[in-house]
Amino acid sequence: MNIGEIAKRAGVSRSTVSYALSGKRPVSEDTRRRIQQVVDELGYRPSASARALANGRTSTIGLVFPPAGNHYTGMQLDFIGSVVEAAAAYDYDVLLSPSGVDSDRSFQRLLGERRVDGAILMEIRLADDRVDHLATLDIPSVAIGRTARPEGSWWVGLDHTTLAAACVHHLADLGHRRVAFVNRPEQLLRAGYESAHRGLDGFTKAAAERGLTVRTYCCGDDAASGQTCVAQILHDDPATTALVTLNEAALGGLYRGLAQAGRHVPRDFSVTGVVANHWAETVTPQLTAADVPAAEMGRLAVELLVERLDHPDAPPRHHLLTPPISLRASTGPGTTP
Amino acid sequence: MNIGEIAKRAGVSRSTVSYALSGKRPVSEDTRRRIQQVVDELGYRPSASARALANGRTSTIGLVFPPAGNHYTGMQLDFIGSVVEAAAAYDYDVLLSPSGVDSDRSFQRLLGERRVDGAILMEIRLADDRVDHLATLDIPSVAIGRTARPEGSWWVGLDHTTLAAACVHHLADLGHRRVAFVNRPEQLLRAGYESAHRGLDGFTKAAAERGLTVRTYCCGDDAASGQTCVAQILHDDPATTALVTLNEAALGGLYRGLAQAGRHVPRDFSVTGVVANHWAETVTPQLTAADVPAAEMGRLAVELLVERLDHPDAPPRHHLLTPPISLRASTGPGTTP
DNA sequence: TAGCTTCACCGAACCGGTTCGACGAACGGG
DNA sequence: CCCGTTCGTCGAACCGGTTCGGTGAAGCTA
User: Fold this and answer.
1) Sheet-wide strand order for A118-121
2) Which terminus of chain B is more exposed, N or C, with fewer CB under 10 A?
């Protein structure tokens, strides 16, 4: 059942059917009704492939995962959900680009074969060849996060530097002097992930500013790693009284490690960081943290991308978000020296 | 840069280029090399839309979310990840069908406009019109979960009845006599979600069999709901010594509620259920539970769907999984009456 | 050297839409 | 009554691939 079939049954030409359905040219009320009736009867829907071929737009956006990331975190989940939802509101579908080792091939599939009109790049790295790649292929994109040189490009990001610093100041204000930093996994740091780098930067600088004694750690994206990481921290410096983490997935393990070491949160030990509120509220005591507004970021990314698709020559825009720290129950006064 | 451009530069016809690239007809080694060279030079990749139009297949599968589900859980995340990965291995892309209120429209987009070759339906309900809908549209699909009458259809599911029963037997064996059941949210139960229904069935029957005193509850998909749910349970019957849950997202809240009521897990109170191991290991003490093999289910679903796409007349297949209970640290002997 | 295959390639049709230019009928103005 | 618009519709071309049938040249046999 194609447009020709509809045309035949309605006794008009194919072009008339097209115009009647799209409304791009006037069609008499009489024929429009006749066509609509046939369409309804047969449950006809124009083929997306044919339409995409004809007008050069697929009405699909690609969601591209990181090359090194074979692991989805809770934050990414919220993000995906909001992207899909926001895209639907603009009549776009969302195509996922496979992560994993063979990512280059899938990148080519999505973008080289023009399956998508535009793309959203997740988990950006400071030096991210994907951004240039997209520009070369002339495919509009919006990055989640900033590269080292974000000028002139489209992105929505979190100000990890400021957020990590805010955590440090929060702890320092409470009187903590010896603080540890629990980062994302080492391979991600080495790969140049911006959240890991800028977060580390912000932490280090703010700590120096406040004259704190600090140690920094990388930690795998799972509970077991969090547990061993805490053990390591307390082994390296038993006088540590607080930690800041960017690592959502390790959070439960961090808590467990502290409990195991006999440290009560928040009485003996304070925990804070940058974590989606969904997760911050899951642990007990609930985590005082800068809430990652994953859902909002997804929505904004789609908005920006749609604007870019509609106005190819629009000047670059971006959103840098700095959510406040939500005071919950995982931080308390540090022991005075 | 289309196939005509390649043909011109290589000095051959468009069909020859097509055959050279697809290998569906022999092409002399000489011309094949010449064509390949031009292709490499220009970085040509055939348009997915045109190809889809020509051969009637989009090389894309749809992942359809539940109409009533506005919330993604951890299990669903693992699932999505494995589906995307498995699909990539078979050279398929994955298109997400927006969830939310307006799901019917997106369902039409994906399936009516034939954006996908096949679909995977998540969070199936016992009476799920989507299954029939798909059959009507003649689109091959695989369901995650069984409808009330799964005969003759393709699916991969979890034996929730048996799993919930196993949890009951585990607790009964430990000596628990008064046990609560924490189900998915009420609206999902009412909507007929199979996991909620079969899990409840299995729990109820096994409890009757073992002569236990039970109460069943529905609980929202978040920590706060879990917390209030536990409060309600202990209010309704303070002698309750254990609970079984299907509700991953509430898990953290359940633990918090118990701690708040002064019940120590597992000394005073046992917790078990059906939960992705990722989550079971996040809480402290780690949850003794039947681990939902979300990743495996995703992989199997894709396998089944691909088989169905390749062999349209293949007889229906399915996988019913019954993972064993992983003994961790959240259950212990019940108080003897 | 005629006759038959085989090989390598070409041209045209097709997939199912969109869009542009044209054309006939109705209509209004002078 | 003739001419210029306007309105509604049609035919054809096009998007960028795939695929079928055919054709000329080369190779082999008799």
Assistant:
1) A318-321, A155-158, A141-144, A118-121, A60-64, A93-97, B93-97, B60-64, B118-121, B141-144, B155-158, B318-321
2) C
Q: How far apart are the first and last CA of chain A?
A: 80
B60-64/A325-326 β-pairing: unpaired
- Asked if strand D contacts A278 at the CB level, meaning under 7 A, the answer is no
pLDDT at A337: 47
Task: Say if B113 is an interface residue toward chain A (CB within 8 Å).
Answer: yes
Protein CA at B27 to nucleotide C1' at D23, angstroms: 16
DSSP string, B208-220: HHTT-EEEEEE--
Instruction: Locate B207 and state its tokens.
Output: 């409890």
* Consecutive 10-residue averages of pLDDT for chain B (337 residues): 96 98 96 98 97 97 73 76 91 84 73 95 89 89 95 96 98 98 95 95 98 98 96 98 96 97 97 93 97 95 97 96 97 77
**What single string gives the DSSP state of each residue in B146-201?**
--S--TTS-EEEE-HHHHHHHHHHHHHHTT--EEEEEES-HHHHHHTBHHHHHHHH
Asked if B269 and A240 count as a contact pair (C-beta separation under 8 A), the reply is no
What are residue B321's DSSP bridge partners? B158
Name the token pair of A177: 């002097």
Contact, B227 CB vs strand D, < 7 Å: no
Residues of chain A short of pLDDT 70, as ranges, are 66-72, 99-103, 336-337
**CA nearest B57: which of B118, B107, B133?**
B118
For residue A178, the surrounding DSSP H or E stretch is strand A178-183
**Amino acid identity at A281:** E
* Residue whose structure tokens are 């045309």: A7
Q: What DSSP designation does A110 have?
A: I
- The answer to whether the CB of A114 falls within 8 A of the CB of B47 is yes
Say whether A282 sits in a helix, a strand or coil: coil
What fold is seen in the domain A3-46?
A: 434 Repressor (Amino-terminal Domain) (1.10.260)
pLDDT tens per residue across span A56-91: 999 999 998 765 445 667 777 788 889 998 999 999
Fold agreement between A60-158+294-321 and A160-292: yes
B252–A60: do the CB atoms touch at under 8 Å? no
B160-292, CATH topology level: Rossmann fold (3.40.50)
CA distance B148 to chain A (A): 28
Domain A60-158+294-321 belongs to what topology? Rossmann fold (3.40.50)
| Residue whose tokens read 């030079």 | B41
- Chain B: nearest CA to A210, how far in angstroms? 33
Question: Residue B278: what pLDDT?
Answer: 85
DSSP state of A25: S
Paired tokens of B301: 């679903």
Domain ranges of chain B: 3-46, 60-158+294-321, 160-292
Instruction: Name residue B160's amino acid.
Output: H
CB atoms within 10 A of CB B9: 18
Q: Which among A145, A179, A184, A175 is positioned nearest to A298, based on CA atoms?
A: A145
pLDDT digits (tens, 9 = 90+) for A184-230: 999 999 999 999 999 999 999 999 999 999 999 999 999 999 999 99
